[in-house]
Design brief:
Blueprint (H helix, E strand, L loop, with lengths): L2 H4 L2 E5 L4 H16 L4 E5 L6 H8 L5 E4 L2 E5 L4 H10 L3
Parallel strand pairs: 1-2
Antiparallel strand pairs: 1-3, 3-4
Helix pairs in contact: 2-4
Length: 89
């Protein structure tokens, strides 16, 4: 699989976030069902940290599917599953 398939699901997290751990437990199996993986981004690390912290700092965890935000804080498995199914053409 190419890079684009691997970019379908992005989970924005930060270290020490208990909601991020719960989100990971929801999102990773759903992505696997859809035949893709989750790319995790620590909003407090890396060259884009300032921008990501400004954008997502109060919302983490945040999950996007195909670039569209699908949820934050407590992730709705049904919504993520529908987004993954709808993105396949």
């Amino acid at each position: 699989m190419g890079g684009q398939a691997d970019e379908r699901v992005v989970l924005y997290v930060r270290e020490g976030c208990h909601l991020c751990e719960a989100a990971r437990d929801v999102v990773v199996p759903l992505a696997a069902e859809a035949g893709t993986r989750v790319r995790e981004v620590d909003i407090d690390a890396g060259p884009d940290a300032a921008e990501l912290t400004d954008r997502y700092g109060e919302l983490v965890p945040v999950v996007t599917v195909d670039g569209v935000q699908q949820g934050y804080w407590r992730i709705d498995a049904g919504r993520v599953r529908r987004a993954l199914a709808g993105g396949r053409g």
